[in-house]
Automatic annotation (TrEMBL):
Residues 36-72 form the DUF1232 domain. Keywords: Membrane, Transmembrane, Transmembrane helix. The keyword Plastid does not apply. The chain crosses the membrane at residues 34-54, 60-81, 101-125. It is found in: Endomembrane system. It comes from Falsiroseomonas oleicola. The keyword Membrane applies. It holds the Pfam family DUF1232. It comes from the Bacteria. It is a multi-pass membrane protein. This is DUF1232 domain-containing protein. InterPro entries: DUF1232 (IPR010652).
Length: 126
């Protein structure tokens, strides 16, 4: 029973991530109404930002804003975007999610960050 609940939660999180990506794509589309574009950017930025309204280290309340505010924002923005337009962006988001992840690119980015941090430490110490 617990495994099924965990799978359902993972599927919900995956769908939520895809919806946020679709909103981001819709926000960049000139055919999207301006109010929906602004709200879509705000929801996508909040969902992807490491900074929360209530910090995650606060028990229960820390995740409550993510569980309530993000889906509520998605719901609101989806009501403002025409159905055929959001369907187009959902398809694009689904296609992007299926693309393979480049481990080499991730390693290069990590090396650049580590090198930058090392240079910063060296500059402060020297």
């Amino acid at each position: 029973m617990m495994a099924r609940a965990w799978q359902a939660l993972r599927a919900w999180a995956r769908d939520l991530k895809r919806e946020v990506l679709a909103l981001y794509l819709a926000a960049r589309d000139k055919r999207t109404p301006w109010l929906a574009r602004v709200l879509a950017l705000m929801v996508a930025a909040y969902a992807l930002s490491p900074i929360d309204l209530i910090p995650d280290f606060i028990p229960v309340l820390g995740y409550l804003d993510d569980i309530i505010l993000v889906p509520l924002g998605i719901w609101l923005v989806l009501r403002l975007i025409p159905d055929e337009l959001i369907a187009e962006h959902r398809a694009a988001a689904m296609a992007m999610a299926r693309r393979p992840v480049s481990r080499i690119a991730a390693a290069v980015i990590a090396i650049v960050w580590i090198g930058t941090a090392a240079l910063l430490v060296w500059a402060v110490i020297a």
